[in-house]
Amino acid sequence: MRRRTGRLRTAAAAALFALGATVLAPPPTAAAARNPDQAAHDYCEGRCADILPPGATGNATLVEILGNKLFGTHPEHSTDQLAPYGALAGGYQSLTDDTLTQFFNDASFGVPDGQVGKVTAPRDDVTITRDKKTGVPHIKGTTRYGTEFGAGYAAGQDRLWLMDLFRHIGRGELTSFAGGALANQGLEQQFWPQAPYTEKDLQQQVDYIRDHNGERGKQAMADAQAYVDGINAYREQSKNGRYFPGEYVLTGHIDAITNAGEIAPFKLTDLIALASVVGGLFGNGGGGEVTNALSLLAAQQKYGAEKGTEVWESFRERNDPEAAKTLHDGSSFPFAVKPAKAEGTALPDRGSVTPEPLVFDRTGAATTKSGTPPRDPVAAPKKFRKLEGLFKDGVLPKGSFNPNQRRGMSNALLVSGKHTAGGNPVAVFGPQTGYFAPQLLMLQEIQGPGISARGASFAGVGMYVQLGRGQDYAWSATSAGQDITDTFAVDLCNADGSPATKDSTSYRYRGSCVPMEKLEHTNSWKPTIADPTAAGSYRMQVFRTKYGTVTHRATVRGKPVAYTAQRSTYRHEADSIIGFQMFNDPSAVRDAKSFQKAAQHIGYAFNWFYADSRDTAYYNSGLNPVRNPAVDPSLPITADDAYEWQGYDPATNTTDYTPPAQHPQSVNQDYYISWNNKQAEDYDSAGFGNGSVHRGNLLDDRVHALTKEGGVTRASLTRAMSEAAVTDLRGEDVLPELLRVLGSKPVTDPRLKTAVQQLQAWAKDGAQRRETAAGSHTYTHPDAVRLMDAWWPLMIESVFKPGLGGDLYGALGANLAIDESPSAGHGPTGAHAGSAFQYGWWSYADKDLRSLLGDKVQGPLAKRYCGGGDLSACRDTLLATLAQANGKTAAQVYPGDASCKAGDQWCADAIIHRAVGGLTHDTISWQNRPTYQQVVEFPAHR
What we know:
Helix content: 25-40%
Strand order of the largest sheet: 5-6-7-14-15-16-17-25-26-28
Strand content: 15-25%
Radius of gyration: 27 Å
Mean pLDDT: 93
Low-confidence stretches: 1-39
Distance between the termini: 44 Å
Shape: globular
Number of helices: 25
């Protein structure tokens, strides 16, 4: 058996060995005496560090899953990065460069001789060396094929079940694979409509990459095939050796006694499906124009067309002058701007919009759409009874993913060498991808012909390191979210010439009535040991047009239309592989400019950051379509050749794209920050929420101060990130204005006076959600935090709803949620997800209160709302809502869930790794920081 973390009593260990008689672990591999990776060129000289909780190992046999449930044990290296990651929240204040390794891994190339652990050689031309401390795979090949084969084999070793799960999510086949739990149904119903493909569509994308990118395209697909071959080699060996992930037994794919059954082979088209999931979650931008139209109509209904549009635009904050920007040097990069007089806008008639139905022909348990569906439990062998119902609530917890909600995540802090203690740039950056067990990302080092990199890759598409470091440079990304998706209104028609209705399935395209293409997918399931949901089935259906897939139907000026979503990366889910290939190639990336050139090959909407010993750099990637400058991309557009994307070819979903020079970019700005904030002046925000208060301000204020002071170090920049990670945005940037309004007159009520004093003390102490001491599970200002959590939603509603009216308030709430505190299960990332304070009405409250207080406000709201614009009335509103909040108990503010008792404030905030398989992990204190994170300072260059 594999060695586990923790200690087992002799009897417990014996019991596990007995249970493993029919489901074996892989045979032990002898440790090597030397390190096969010493030859790689490493110019970081020990100053590169990284971390990715909970651990490198993501697979667990059935025996190991059972051990986790019975005794809390874990497979070796599955949880050893969790404790140092979690400890930073309480240890950052005393952090020095010398103590960074207490919280991060050494990210140097290779493995020191004394740290060489297991070595695997799946072929003669590749070795996979795992270090003793973390078990991260260091892949070294002597041929290109062998190198990529090794990367695939290592991915199989660490993430086989996860990769299998996500290829089925991407294909819209989750319920058929993992069971019919309502959460599984919901997940595939969210993802498949975003990227519905036939097998032919998937293969065409493989062919397109190979045939349209020269030698790099051919090499990319050869690398991908070698990677798939490596996955399949491990898949077959682990199945035959009976050390495959135990989830395959629990979900009915393999018999635990006879070993009958199959893990289906992976193929290249699976990588396209996997890429569609990753890109859909983190690399898309735009869309939502129908929802925008509905809130605009509500504003016009409330205030009239002219004033209503003015009010709506002030909430839209497309190009807010007070927004935190990554490029703060005044440079302008106009994109997706609002025209002076828009043409081709296709607003729906009021009350006419209906969402396009997706699910049909429900049978069995699928007829239950809410609550608990009927269950038909499958009895497990007695020794495995503890694992019955493991996935009864879904293989992924409800709310884990929703591609329909914007998921701008990840942050970056970079300081130019002019302002650092060592004279070299310093960077602290990484992707904020949520917390899962196993993690969606996996750490690896790949060394082979034309490849030299260490870092993180999404499991299943990890033939290259996607975020990490090369020989003398490091790079990372944040989700950018610029507008690469538009909504078109296609006129409906009937082929027989009869009058069209909203249900018509043909549409007008360049003068002809053409049928929509119907894409269908039928899923069925039966109960398993893990998921007792009774047998059921349903059919998913999406209509596809030459302007994208149908999302809604409506009437426009009385004529029936279908609204479609046209995404520039549709049918190009994995084209970005070329850019990632270049990032890993030391001959392709030698400096800041060559890095920016490589980033131009990334089609998804990302902000890319780079640091070497001399330079820092930034580049915003994405297939930005060239639009008719007269259209408003924030609203639905009439589907007419005059208003479609310029140079658009519906057969390949290609178009003219804005040239690289028009993408926000820079080299050696004094510092860069990004937390999914606005990129640059005139680079219009695709969604609501980029205003005067954004979580990017938490970084910008701190890094600006550090840069001004000078002498920045890796530790000081990490401290800035960590302090921001435990700070309440509302408390730091809006509470001061709230307290000013409250303090405009003395507060005489004793209870309210105490509440105000608690909030004042919290604000003075930094408005942090931080433990009194590591492991105390009690915040330093628990009453103030509770007050803010209870007060904010009450205050926002009482301030804005009376003036806006219920309809407009609700419509704007659909554009932008009012709050996203760490404990808010309703946020875009769900509860216990770490990421917080991106989406909320903080800017609206800030601008409204500052206007009322007589402060200078650039880009103010079109009306004043608090107290109807009267300071005294506003104060009364704030006091009344504060009194309501003060009357709420901790149990009311934090009602508890499956993981936390009611009233447990710390637990309500805390990060819980969501089980995507059979293993669970310890809860850690809340931090709002990247999941995978690097701290780098290169002192030398090639």
